């Protein structure tokens, strides 16, 4: 080694050489250390990995013939299908059973197939914010398209689960797959813009606006120049009733007015306008019970959307069915409930015991924590099929679907059994009765008269 007077460059070089030697020794020592074994958990008891109840016997039904008869069209018809919440992370388009394939066929053969995308498409798992891991890689966008979906709402309480960057990746993934979206954007202004979609051989322009109503201000946009959602936030007033002061909560008037302005602007450039409202008027906590009746203060924003010029309003959020109203000749679906509900997947969140203790799960007495499950009303929904011609709505049909609540197909939709179908149609009829809606049972589906 050189001794004597060194220049400052030589001194720095010597320090770097010495440091490199230390690092090299440390790396060699670490290479000899045993690698810790990855942690694993026994999930075999989970209701999502095994069947507790025997599978419902398969019915002798020719689903292909039934669906083929349903799909008959006339010249000029445009078919729009709509489903509720989609929490989606495992491939289902490859399921071979007719009660899966023919269900997806109804959406695949529609001109426009809408659903609420309540998960994120991104490759940034490290950005996860809340407990629920509602994410699929960007490549999964092709699976969303494969089941037929080409129009989605994004204004919901899971769109920002992976932060602004996760939302931007999701928007880009949808754009690359030509899945039209609304309700979220790179800015607040973009979140309030309609997503537009065209139909082959048709000059009619279709558009979607999407909004989320939450019971707190949690999702209100804080930076209008950054990624945002279109929200209708809560407001609270005090009223005197029978000598007592009560709190009454409902949608914020200025936000409803902003929605109305968006609708007026969208109608200037489009012919048929769909409005999606993802509504959480209260928490899903089971202390609130089955939230199948919409509060009168929440009906306001659905009807105001029609008053402003929307042609139909599609509700989601409560995870249970709500009624159907024909308001001024236009349909309002207050909640289509769930469609794909893969939200409790042990391989995505390994500690399934934590999921089982979730307050959203019903807790019956003397039932093992491993056998607890969502209520039957949560694991079902309806697929709505609307037929338009010359921009006029001429037919509304809905098909009841049930969702597997245990085993490897947990969260996957299928046509409901005959018994469950009858029960679900009856329930929608009961929930729609206050609105004077007439529903005709057609056996495995129903028709809404207007």
CATH architecture: 4-Layer Sandwich
**How many independent structural domains?**
1
What is the radius of gyration computed over CA atoms, rounded to a whole number of angstroms?
26 Å
- Average pLDDT, rounded to a whole number, is 90
The number of strands is 23
According to CATH, what is the class?
Answer: Alpha Beta
Profile the largest sheet.
10 strands, mixed
Please count the helical segments.
Answer: 10
Shape: globular
Q: What distance lies between the first and last C-alpha atoms, to the nearest angstrom?
A: 95 Å
Write the layout of secondary structure elements.
Layout: H1 8-32, H2 63-70, E1 77-87, H3 98-108, E2 112-117, E3 120-121, E4 135-136, H4 141-146, E5 151-153, H5 163-176, E6 180-182, E7 184-185, H6 188-191, E8 195-198, E9 205-213, E10 228-229, E11 231-232, E12 234-241, E13 244-251, H7 253-269, E14 272-279, H8 296-308, E15 312-316, E16 324-327, E17 330-333, E18 338-341, H9 352-356, E19 380-389, E20 392-403, E21 413-415, H10 418-432, E22 438-441, E23 446-449
Parallel strand pairs: 1-2, 1-18, 2-5, 3-4, 5-6, 9-11, 9-14, 14-15, 15-17
Antiparallel strand pairs: 1-19, 7-10, 8-9, 12-13, 16-17, 19-20, 20-21, 20-23, 22-23
């Amino acid at each position: 080694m050189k001794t004597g007077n060194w220049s400052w460059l030589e001194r720095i070089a010597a320090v770097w050489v010495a440091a490199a030697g230390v690092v090299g020794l440390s790396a060699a020592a670490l290479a000899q250390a045993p690698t810790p074994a990855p942690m694993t958990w026994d999930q075999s008891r989970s209701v999502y990995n095994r069947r507790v109840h025997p599978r419902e016997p398969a019915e002798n039904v020719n689903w292909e013939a039934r669906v083929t008869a349903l799909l008959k069209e006339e010249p000029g018809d445009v078919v729009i299908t709509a489903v509720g919440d989609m929490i989606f992370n495992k491939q289902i388009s490859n399921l071979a059973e007719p009660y899966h394939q023919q269900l997806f066929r109804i959406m695949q053969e529609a001109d426009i197939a809408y659903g609420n995308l309540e998960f994120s498409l991104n490759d940034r798992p490290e950005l996860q914010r809340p407990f629920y891991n509602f994410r699929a890689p960007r490549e999964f966008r092709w699976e969303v398209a494969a089941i037929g979906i080409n129009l989605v709402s994004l204004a919901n309480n899971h769109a920002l689960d992976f932060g602004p960057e996760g939302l931007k990746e999701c928007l880009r993934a949808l754009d690359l797959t030509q899945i039209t979206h609304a309700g979220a954007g790179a800015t607040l202004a973009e979140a309030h813009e309609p997503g537009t979609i065209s139909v082959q051989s048709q000059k009619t322009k279709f558009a979607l606006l999407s909004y989320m109503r939450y019971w707190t201000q949690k999702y209100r946009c804080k930076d209008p120049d950054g990624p945002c959602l279109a929200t209708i936030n809560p407001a609270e007033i005090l009223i005197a009733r029978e000598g007592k002061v009560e709190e009454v909560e409902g949608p914020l008037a200025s936000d409803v007015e902003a929605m109305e302005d968006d609708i007026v602007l969208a109608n200037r450039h489009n012919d048929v306008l769909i409005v999606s409202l993802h509504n959480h008027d209260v928490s899903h906590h089971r202390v609130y019970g089955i939230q199948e009746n919409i509060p009168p203060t929440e009906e306001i924003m659905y009807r105001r959307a029609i008053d402003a010029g929307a042609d139909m309003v599609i509700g989601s959020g409560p995870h249970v069915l709500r009624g159907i109203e024909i308001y001024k000749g236009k349909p309002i679906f207050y909640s289509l409930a769930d469609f794909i509900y893969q939200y409790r997947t042990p391989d995505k969140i390994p500690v399934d015991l934590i999921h089982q203790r979730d307050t959203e799960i019903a807790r019956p007495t003397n039932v093992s924590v491993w056998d607890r499950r969502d209520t039957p009303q949560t694991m079902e929904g309806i697929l709505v099929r609307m037929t338009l011609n010359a921009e006029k709505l001429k037919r509304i049909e809905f098909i009841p679907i049930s969702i597997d609540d245990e085993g490897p197909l947990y969260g996957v939709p299928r046509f409901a059994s005959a018994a469950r179908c009858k029960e679900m149609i009856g329930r929608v009829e009961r929930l729609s009765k206050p609105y004077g809606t007439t529903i005709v049972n057609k056996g495995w589906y129903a028709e809404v008269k207007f």
